[in-house]
Amino acid sequence: MRTDDFDFDLPENLIAQHPPSEHGLSRLLCMKGHALEDAMFSDFPQKMKAGDVLVLNDTRVIKARLFGFKQSGGKVEVLIERVLGEHEALAQIRASKSPAAGSLLILAEKLEAWVKGREGEFFRLRFSSDTPLLELLEQYGNLPLPPYISHAAGKEDEARYQTVFARKSGAVAAPTAGLHFSDGMLKTLESSGVRIRYVTLHVGAGTFQPVRAVYVKDHAMHSERYEIPQETVDAIVQAKASGSRVVAVGTTSLRALESAAREGLKAGCGETRIFITPGFQFLVADALLTNFHLPKSTLLMLVSAFGGTDEIRAAYRHAIRNAYRFFSYGDAMLIERKTT
């Protein structure tokens, strides 16, 4: 497969720059094979059945972007990729010249961060403050909105670029399919017999990187941490035994589940570099709720694997013709897994 096989032309005006005024006001494109249904996200509870398991990613987005200067005076922009402990992190650094190991960065006018060295594409930083790094980021950092959103993060984004069920800090991008849910809808789903369970996958900045390799097989995935609780495993096992569905909310939830299932689904933590492309054998998810994804992205390849490459192409053409909103603040798709 060539990366160009997953390209498409998207009118710029369809890239959602702001969320809808309220949770649940997005549109929902339901897809089963070549059959498409235009709906509203408020219809989503009617698409679920008692006994189905809805798996959400409860990661919380951290204020991972910091601006400052090198001690030598040059400007830097730091994007924390992963918090490694109370005082260290891996980060992307944008500067006119990459900082050397042993150099000092002054961030947000107050924070001292020492460059310990390189680890692949990232820099390892150690912060001098006695305050834990997550607290420092909450106080001095900026919300890292995706590169296709043109405005700087404001109060609206701090409230809406975060799921209502976010609880475990560590992501640098939101699991955006979860942004559609309100507390009220979650209660409605539970009262109708849908079992809501959680995984945690801390989304990395690599989720926005396009695949630059000519051939898909040559792309190297970034690594992300995940955790699956025992109660989530138990609910999935029960659903499979009873003939109910497992519905993954977002590609992040799906990647965590399918990564763990490679060696038999069980509770615990792990690292995943799983790259899901057409031909992948899914072991857990029966349906996927997701947003519309970037051209040439690993996420578009994933949904093509799940719903069928030709079917996804047709669905995206339909979405563009009908002015669906794309990407993080955009509309949603509910995709039934292709089984033949």
Structure in words:
With 340 residues, the chain is of the alpha/beta class. It has 2 domains: 3-61 and 156-336, QueA-like, CATH 3.40.1780.10; 65-140, QueA-like (Thrombin, subunit H, Beta Barrel). Helices cover 21% and strands 29% of the residues. The protein is built from 7 helices and 17 strands. It has helices spanning 133-140, 155-160, 183-191, 230-242, 250-261, 298-307, 309-321, and strands at 27-32, 35-40, 53-57, 59-61, 65-70, 75-83, 88-95, 104-107, 111-119, 122-127, 168-171, 195-201, 224-228, 246-249, 268-272, 287-291, 332-336. Strands 2-1-17-16-14-3-12-13-15 form a 9-stranded mixed sheet. Strand 6 (75-83) and strand 7 (88-95) form a beta hairpin. Helix 6 packs across helix 7 (309-321). It is globular and about 60 Å long. The model has no long low-confidence stretch (mean pLDDT 95).
Question: What layout of secondary structure does this protein have?
Answer:
Layout: E1 27-32, E2 35-40, E3 53-57, E4 59-61, E5 65-70, E6 75-83, E7 88-95, E8 104-107, E9 111-119, E10 122-127, H1 133-140, H2 155-160, E11 168-171, H3 183-191, E12 195-201, E13 224-228, H4 230-242, E14 246-249, H5 250-261, E15 268-272, E16 287-291, H6 298-307, H7 309-321, E17 332-336
Helix pairs in contact: 6-7
Question: What features would you highlight for this structure?
Answer:
Thrombin, subunit H, alpha/beta, nine-stranded mixed beta sheet, 17 strands, six-stranded antiparallel barrel, globular, 2 domains, QueA-like, about 350 residues
